[in-house]
Design the sequence.
């Protein structure tokens, strides 16, 4: 999903941890260490890493300095996944089972035969499948220590949180009613907030 | 500081109460949060959930259908809260339409004002990107202002009056 065109879907984080003065250098180093690795043949079901903002499919970039505009760092999280669609697997398992039965002269396949066929078919289809790329823009507001990730996908956000922590040694804490209130209120108000209980509008 | 997963579950009701309050405010008050920020219901899409019921029941109202609207207020009378709502902001004459979710208070389908779209064509990509960031930030800041206002009312003695007003609204014919 994208910041640059169409309707925006976003998830917001606060950056916590030991934030250095030279945050820009830390970001460049983290992106360099965990940049998206361009792989053609892979046995992995998922490959992820950081890539550029405006050209996320060009992984040959050399100048991470271009990722910064004013007080923002702009880059992308690229997550490529490889899978075998369930119906395609089902179809090939049926065809292979039929072939195996007619060749064996038996009237049925054992549980072990069926398992073996399914694994062999999956392996064949998986080796032919390509990684499907998915790109999520990331906007890091360096002045406010906030990061916006332009997706609501639970899986993508989990990958983002893990990679963010590995890359920058900082924690991205997701903002939700409690964490938002915590940063808006003073200590006395925060203490009062902790004692809130749900109101009922029931009539 | 509370463990975040505990805090998320324990104070999840705050997000639903906030959206229920926003629904009430947008329907009942010409709501001006400040000189340059006004909110209103946009396309009348409201999702209402009964959080404590299994399976979770969800109702939606769409468009100007008064039957749906009655069903919605009837659900609120029975203890449901708003889980998702589509709203419009007017900020310095710019109109933003978006859906906001109670659990994370995150935006989805946020449509920025049209002049931002015109900026996508020119060669000045950085300028166009900064314009989008500026407009997006305006929406985020406006939502923060609204949430802060709600939280301060929620913590004050005025909250009892607000609850009473919301009850009056949902029992009104």
Sequence:
């Amino acid at each position: 999903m994208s910041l640059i065109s169409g309707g925006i879907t976003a998830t917001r984080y606060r950056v916590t941890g030991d934030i250095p003065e030279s945050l820009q250098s830390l970001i460049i180093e983290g992106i360099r260490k965990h940049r998206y690795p361009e792989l053609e043949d892979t046995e992995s079901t998922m490959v992820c890493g950081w890539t550029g903002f405006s050209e996320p499919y060009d992984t040959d970039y050399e100048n991470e300095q271009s990722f910064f505009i004013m007080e923002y760092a702009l880059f992308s999280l690229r997550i490529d996944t490889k899978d075998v669609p369930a119906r395609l697997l089902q179809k090939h398992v049926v065809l292979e089972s039929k072939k195996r039965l007619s060749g064996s002269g038996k009237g049925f396949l054992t549980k072990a035969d069926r398992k073996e066929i399914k694994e062999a078919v999956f392996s064949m289809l998986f080796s032919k499948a390509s990684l499907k790329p998915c790109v999520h823009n990331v906007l890091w507001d360096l002045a406010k220590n906030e990061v916006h990730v332009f997706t609501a996908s639970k899986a993508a956000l989990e990958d983002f949180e893990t990679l963010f922590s590995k890359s920058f040694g900082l924690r991205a804490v997701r903002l939700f009613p409690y964490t938002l209130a915590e940063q808006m209120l003073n200590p006395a108000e925060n203490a009062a907030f902790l004692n809130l209980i749900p109101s009922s509008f029931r009539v | 500081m509370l463990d975040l997963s505990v805090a998320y579950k324990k104070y999840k009701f705050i997000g639903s109460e906030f959206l229920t309050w926003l629904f009430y405010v947008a329907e009942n008050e010409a709501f001006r949060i400040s000189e340059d920020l006004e909110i209103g219901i946009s396309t009348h899409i409201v999702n209402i959930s009964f959080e404590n019921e299994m399976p979770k029941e969800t109702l939606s109202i769409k468009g100007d259908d008064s039957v749906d609207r009655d069903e919605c207020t009837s659900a609120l009378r029975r203890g449901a809260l708003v889980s998702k709502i589509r709203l419009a902001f007017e900020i310095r004459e710019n109109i933003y339409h978006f859906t906001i979710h109670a659990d994370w208070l995150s935006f989805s389908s946020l449509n920025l004002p049209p002049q931002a779209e015109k900026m996508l064509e020119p060669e000045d990509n950085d300028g166009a990107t900064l314009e989008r960031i500026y407009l997006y930030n305006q929406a985020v800041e406006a939502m923060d202002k609204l949430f802060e206002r709600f939280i301060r009312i929620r913590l004050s003695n005025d909250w009892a009056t607000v609850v009473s007003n919301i009850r009056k609204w949902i029992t009104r014919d």
Notes: The radius of gyration of chain B is 18 Å. The CA atoms of residues 49 and 58 of chain B lie 5 Å apart. Residues 125-155 of chain B form the longest helix (31 residues). The beta strands of chain B are 31-34, 37-50, 57-61, 81-91, 94-101, 107-111.
